[in-house]
Design brief:
The complex is a heterodimer of chains A (307) and B (308). By secondary structure, chain A is mainly α. Chain A is 76% helix and 0% strand. In chain B, α10 runs parallel beside α11. Chain B is mainly alpha-helical and 308 residues long. Classes of the chains: A mainly alpha (307), B mainly alpha (308). At the A-B interface, α1, α5, α6, α7 and α10 of A face α6, α7, α10, α11 and α12 of B.
Chain lengths: 307, 308
């Protein structure tokens, strides 16, 4: 087990390096730099600016010094767009927001998704089952950039219950709609996966044995069937968690929550290389870590896995 | 002698049975698919949508990029859907005919989905089959590469690519093609591992068939079932993905449009009371996705039967 974790970590490091190189090359090959604007700057000013941010150096130099800064000092460099701030500041401002509604979304998606999936599977082909399947298919197809404005229309404009955007330090009124908009499609996927794997488990022999022993259905489901049925859900959870915690770019934009997604899109349009790199790396590292955690959990829970 | 007649009858029945042709795997699958009502309805809807995308433009009264300046900005009270004006689905904020634009949006969305799935099928299947068939170190390297690519946040990289290299439909196809094949490669590899130890592959190896030909002639055809299922389920994912990119304004550019771009415009005009700008594209978006979901599920049940 320990060797497995070490091996996985050993793969994670080159992955991150490749990620750095790819995003760096992409940005380097971009026509136009961060200081190109409508009114061209005088040549000397431009040269000074480029020297300040190290943009006059050869490419490999820039890349090496960037990676060096990140690895040794956890320093992602200064932001080109917000002159008084570093990338670390930008991430420190945006990431807690994203993390807050991301974690809530993950919890909501898991709890609602699993309970919906299990109850649909236990009463297969009942009205409840069809209803659950219908809801999940609809929720998977409806993009959140359509759902979010409809939520705003209903809860803000018509009912006036919830604020239509902003963050306000993460008060609960401000968190509810982003969480709904973000978690729904993940919830639907989890419910679908849970339902089909639960159906498979419920048809297996050990469940029949448990029922034959005379155990009540409730106990059979919760004690015997739930754990094996959740394994496929677990493997979906890795990418889903990343998707939710890195936040949806769309949710950030619609609700102006100020998460990293919003900063990312702004920076991409402004060619603020440093912020883009920082956020891409952050998301990449999160992706790798969550996949690692899920794989380890999987190996720990399911004795059939060879690692 | 008394038995003669029943015997003859029985023989006839046996003879009749012998005339029944052998059932292939595909014929079985087709029968299962046709018995599945949801999948069948999905297929019919899908065909209708394709017809709409292909020929819907013929009954449009306006060009999709024709701007009616008298309706520009006045669509909320003069541009509502009506048969008489020829704007069946109403007019958008710029005075353009929404029907013609919906036809085109459906076409582009379908195209994006299908191109994404095709790339996945071609690249992913060959890649996965090769990795699985060769095995050993090559397999290890090839699949680790897939793992690495999978942990790259593609939504972010795609946004970056579209910002940097300009927004074009080609770039969008490249970006979507880059992501779509990864899952397929994993699935194809897994399936290849079980196929490659079967007797018919052994026989091919024994008769001296070259590895490439074994992969193409003996392995890939046996992957087709599962590949088709996942390709069908991949199409809606690609369509949804494109709609996000379009929402950010990075997708298909004017005067072309996609369902995602239309819906995004629709949500932005929702407060003006021009709800048709959202709901017509949304309707086509949703039924397209539902159709693909149902057809995909039906195909899975047909080609990969388990008692669910």
């Amino acid at each position: 087990m320990f060797a497995y974790i070490v091996r996985r970590l050993a793969i994670a490091i080159p992955t991150i390096l490749i990620l750095v190189v790819i995003s760096f090359l992409l940005m380097y090959s971009a026509p136009g730099g961060p200081f190109n604007s409508e009114r061209p700057l005088p040549a000397e000013v431009m040269a000074n600016l480029e020297a300040k941010y190290g943009l006059d150096q050869p490419m490999w130099r820039q890349m090496v010094s960037y990676v060096w800064g990140v690895v040794t000092q956890f320093d992602f460099g200064p932001s080109f767009q917000y002159t008084d701030r570093t990338v670390n500041d930008v991430i420190a401002q945006g990431f807690p927001v994203t993390l807050t509604y991301g974690l809530w979304s993950a919890i909501v998606a898991m709890v609602v998704g699993v309970s919906l999936g299990v109850s649909a599977a236990v009463r297969q082909n009942s009205v409840l089952d069809y209803l659950a399947v219908g809801i999940t298919i609809g929720a998977q197809a409806l993009p959140n950039f359509v759902m979010a404005p409809i939520l705003v229309l209903i809860f803000t404009l018509w009912l006036g219950w919830l604020p239509g955007g902003g963050w306000n330090g993460g008060q609960w009124e401000y968190v509810i709609m982003p969480v709904i908009a973000l978690s729904t499609s993940y919830m639907a996927s989890i419910a679908r996966i849970t339902r089909s794997s639960m159906l498979e488990v419920l048809n297996s022999n050990f469940i029949r044995t448990a029922q034959a022993k005379g155990l009540p259905m409730r106990r059979v489901v919760l004690r015997h069937a739930l754990k094996p049925a959740l394994l496929p859900v677990l493997s979906y959870l890795g990418p889903a968690m990343v998707g939710m915690i890195t936040g949806s770019v769309v949710v950030d934009i619609i609700f102006s929550t100020g998460g990293i997604g919003q900063f990312f899109v702004n920076s991409a349009f402004n060619r603020d290389y440093a912020v883009i790199m920082g956020i891409t790396l952050l998301v990449g590292v999160l992706t790798i870590s969550f996949n690692l955690i899920v794989d380890i959990l999987y190996a720990w829970i399911d004795p059939k896995i060879r690692y | 002698m008394k038995l003669a007649e029943p015997d003859a009858k029985m023989l006839q029945e046996v003879g009749a049975l012998a005339e029944v042709r052998g059932r292939s795997l595909w014929a079985d699958a087709r029968a299962r698919f046709l018995r599945n009502k949801a999948a069948l309805i999905g297929l019919v809807v899908l065909i209708l949508i394709c017809l709409f995308a292909a020929f819907g433009g013929l009954i449009a009264q306006y060009e999709r990029d024709f701007v009616d300046f008298s309706l520009m900005g006045a669509n909320a009270y003069q541009g509502s859907p009506s048969i008489e004006t020829g704007h069946y689905f109403g007019v958008d904020i710029d005075g353009r005919d929404l029907y013609a634009r919906t036809v085109q949006g459906t076409r582009i969305s379908l195209l994006v989905g299908i191109v994404g799935a095709l790339v996945a099928v071609l690249v992913g299947t060959l890649y996965g089959a090769t990795a699985g068939y060769i095995g050993g170190r090559v397999d290890n390297i090839m699949m680790r590469t897939v793992d690495v690519l999978m942990s790259i946040p593609f939504m972010f990289v795609l946004i970056l690519m579209l910002v940097i290299f300009g927004r074009s439909i080609l770039m969008l196809f490249i970006g979507i093609g880059l992501i779509s094949w990864l899952d397929m490669a994993r699935i194809a590899r897994g399936q290849t591992l079980t196929i490659k130890n079967k007797e018919f592959v052994e026989a091919a190896v024994a008769t001296g068939v070259k590895p490439l030909k074994i992969i193409l002639r003996h392995v890939v055809p046996n992957l087709l079932g599962i590949v088709i299922v996942y390709a069908t389920l991949l199409v809606p994912q690609m369509i949804i993905f494109e709609s996000f990119i379009s929402y950010l304004g990075l997708g298909v550019q004017e005067p072309n449009t996609s369902l995602g771009a239309l819906m995004s415009l629709g949500t932005k005009q929702m407060n003006n009371g021009t709800l048709w700008m959202l709901f017509y594209p949304l309707f086509f978006f949703l039924i397209t996705l539902f159709a693909f979901f149902f057809v995909g599920d039906g195909l899975r049940d047909a080609l990969d039967p388990k008692d669910r």
